[in-house]
Amino acid sequence: MYDVLLVGGGAAGFFTAITIAEKNPNLKIGILERGKSVLEKVRISGGGRCNVTHACFVPNELVKFYPRGEKELRGPFHQFCTGDTIEWFEKHGVELKIEEDGRMFPTSDSSQTIIDCFLSLVKKHKIDVLTTQSVQSLYKGDGFWQVDTPNQSYRCTKLVMTTGSNPKIWEMLEKLGHTIVPPVPSLFTFNINDKRISNLMGLSAVATVKVKNTKLEAAGPLLITHWGMSGPGILRLSAWGARTLAEKKYQFHIEVNWLHETTFEEAMEALKSLKQEQAKKVVGKKSPFDFPNRLWESLVLHSGIAEDTKWADLSKKQLHDLGGQLTQGEFQVNGKSTFKDEFVTAGGIDLKEVNFKTMESKLFANLFFAGEIVNIDAITGGFNFQNAWTSGFIVSEAIT
Predict the structure, then answer these.
(1) Could you read off the pLDDT of 99-114 as tens digits, one per residue?
(2) I want to staple 183 with a disulfide (CB 3.0 to 4.6 A). Which of 61, 116, 159, 347 is the partner?
(3) Which of 53, 50, 49 is CA-nearest to residue 82?
(4) Which long-range contacts (CB under 8 A, 24 or more apart) does 310-316 make?
(5) DSSP conformation letters of 376-391
(6) Nearest-angstrom CA–CA distance, 377 and 383
(7) Is the dihedral angle over the CA atoms 101, 373, 342, 110 positive or is it negative?
(8) What is the pLDDT of residue 145?
């Protein structure tokens, strides 16, 4: 019998258990984890460095990074935001640093620092961590919750679900009466087989990408990979378009503007000027724009311009085609690939069924949620972890 039982031994589970224990030292708290080890997603996140949060300190700005949950997180972020996360970790001996792109990591550059911090704190607060406990059923009794695993039954007064994107747990909660928004992948890269980029893996450029025949558009660094396109711009597009792109079965066309915010008309003006100013120079030799030479060479060739063509010899059609390749390049996407090991899904418990002042279920008393189990997800950059810390803190405030 526990006062508080948490199901899920990941970031949200540990942080929530620890913050509850700090405020209520007399409560008996346990964490159930189906695997043999805990905090595995923390271990691999951020390339093994653990991207703890993002240096965005204004709640109304921070919510804009969440394709699902933007409205609901505004209140919680006013209670526990990025600054509070930094303070919490510093108080517990983990110093964080900000990188150029705003991502925040432990100064040790190792996720083990976060894992060690959590493990020492659960030990300090005598929180039971019970591994290989795969939950088989949930039962709501009169004033208690019962959680059954293959080898044990547990009872608790308050139950906190922190199982992330676990279909089996969603199924159990659905049987209880909760609505589950069907999960679809978010944060994925695009599979593209196209001669224009086939030999350019590793190159990156800041670009604007649109999904044709939709309103989906994102800008940011685009990375060419051996399977297609990745990078922050593509990942952002995949997060905001998670449902739309799933409906399209990941078969769609994108339009890439390699000149970012430059329009086709502006590009044409620039090309016409170059034709006059650099008349005697070979077109494909050096990129006149702020992106890699090899990409420029490829776009020039695929505009029907021979390798030794000089600017003065360009025809109107060749200029027009080059302007199109630069600002309106169309690529066919055939499928997706998981971004590193950081598999994120859009979906989970319907947000209408959660009280965001307490993270308690609106359908059942003493049932709480933290982390990605609810239909909230963010783009890459530390935002999904910030949701875990914030929702865990809100739960700890509600449990006394």
Answers:
(1) 999 999 999 999 999 9
(2) 347
(3) 53
(4) 310/279, 310/280, 310/281, 310/282, 310/283, 311/274, 311/275, 311/276, 311/277, 311/278, 311/279, 311/280, 311/281, 311/282, 311/283, 312/275, 312/279, 312/280, 314/275, 314/283
(5) -B--SSSHHHHHHHHH
(6) 8
(7) positive
(8) 98
Dihedral sign (CA 304, 309, 312, 313): negative
Q: pTM for the complete prediction?
A: 0.89
What are the residues whose beta carbons fall under 8 Å from the beta carbon of 122, sequence distance 6 or more? 14, 17, 18, 31, 129
Residue tagged 């020039």 (tokens):
300
Instruction: Show the tokens assigned to 106.
Output: 């432990």
Q: What is the pLDDT of residues 348-396, one digit of tens each?
A: 999 999 999 999 999 999 999 999 999 999 998 999 999 999 999 999 9
Rounded Cα distance, 79 and 83, in Å: 11
Q: What distances in angstroms separate CA 201 from CA 37, 69, 152, 209, 221, one per listed residue?
A: 36, 35, 51, 18, 14
Angle formed by the axes of helices 11-23 and 111-124, nearest 10°: 40
> What is the Cα–Cα distance from 62 to 58, expressed in whole angstroms?
6
Look-up of token digits 């493990």: 119
pLDDT, tens digit (0-9, with 9 covering 90-100), for 33-48: 999 999 999 999 888 9
Low-confidence ranges of the chain (pLDDT < 50): none
Angle at which helices 383-398 and 82-91 pack, to 10 degrees? 80
Q: How far apart are CA 199 and CA 53, in angstroms?
A: 35
Residue 103 confidence (pLDDT):
96
Question: Which two three-digit tokens encode residue 179?
Answer: 């609505």
Q: What is the DSSP string of 13-37?
A: HHHHHHHHHHH-TTS-EEEE-SSSS
pLDDT at 343: 67
Look up residue 31 and give its amino acid. I
CA 206 to mean position of chain CA atoms: 19
CA pair distance 305, 299, nearest whole angstrom: 9
The residue whose two tokens read 């309106």 is: 328
